Amino acid sequence: GAVVSQHPSWVICKSGTSVKIECRSLDFQATTMFWYRQFPKQSLMLMATSNEGSKATYEQGVEKDKFLINHASLTLSTLTVTSAHPEDSSFYICSARDWRSGGADTQYFGPGTRLTVL
Amino acid sequence: AQSVTQLDSHVSVSEGTPVLLRCNYSSSYSPSLFWYVQHPNKGLQLLLKYTSAATLVKGINGFEAEFKKSETSFHLTKPSAHMSDAAEYFCVVSDYPTSGTYKYIFGTGTRLKVLA
Known about the structure:
The complex is a heterodimer of chains A (118) and B (116).
Chain A: E1 4-7, E2 10-13, E3 19-25, E4 32-38, E5 44-51, E6 57-58, E7 67-73, E8 76-81, E9 90-97, H1 99-102, E10 107-109, E11 113-117
Parallel strand pairs in A: 2-11
Antiparallel strand pairs in A: 1-3, 3-8, 4-5, 4-9, 5-6, 7-8, 9-10, 9-11
Chain B: E1 3-6, E2 10-14, E3 19-21, E4 23-26, E5 33-38, E6 44-50, E7 56-58, E8 64-68, E9 73-78, E10 87-94, H1 96-99, E11 104-106, E12 110-115
């Protein structure tokens, strides 16, 4: 139980294009999902908290118009990187809360998406 | 504010020897503490979680951690390292008691290297 998937696992795009990353909870409903960014050999940086049916809460310094988050259902959250530039290249990881299996504050992580912007 | 400190950025052990990854926390409340493992280019996998039910927490793959309030520590141990244990390990505290959100506060990570 508590499996989170991400799609795609890796993507290469040209500068100026937009890229959408999907995060799905496969066997549970997730009212809250989180989006992280990880630079090489560093810890995870929380970008935003995604709540089903409401606007995402962005962390300080994260451009909400640049990183669009939609949590339209209890099993799907999407992150769209708009007008991507090489500095947006990174490893993006999502997570979801599953209070049934791990308690209210346990997050289960997706496998990550490697974005490379040329 | 809550925080976690992972005392070692790198740890090297020989295969078959014990593993000790150190984590200290700072919290005004009874914290929820976690250990996660991340293999290269992968997401994070939950190893174990402390929620005040028992101070010694057993996790997957033979790992365990002991919550010591007097030392504000939550060190991760394994009796015998396996080559497959080589990965990045993160100590995490839930920020729920402080902020009312379910955000995680991450340690900086410890890279475990297992020597043949």
